[in-house]
Design brief:
Blueprint lengths: L3 H12 L2 H8 L3 H9 L6 H11 L3 H12 L4 H17 L10 H4 L7 H9 L1
Amino acid sequence: MTQVPELLTRACEAVGSQTEVAKLLKVPPQMLSMWKNGTKPCPPEDQARIAAIAGIDPIQTLVRAHIEKHEGTEKGDQLARVLGKFLGATGAAVATSGASAAAIFSPTSKSLFDLIRCILC
């Protein structure tokens, strides 16, 4: 599982500096420092954008980040059940949010469009 500090490090390596990453994201460089240090949570959507800069699958990152954001809640359990199969199929790590492995890897099948629409709801 790629966490925000690692995402930012890899993105900085890809484009040369934290300042360049900040410019691409259109955020102040201080925001990146806060995300990296954990003083401010990095929104799932921004994690996906950072992943894209770093050359990491942004969809997997977005899904994982949304599941983690809602971990321990009913919404988190539902996301883990709905999206966990996608993450398992693509080899990404899954935060189970208390959901059982059987529920996560149930035969629920969603198209990519439905998956993204679910994330954004």
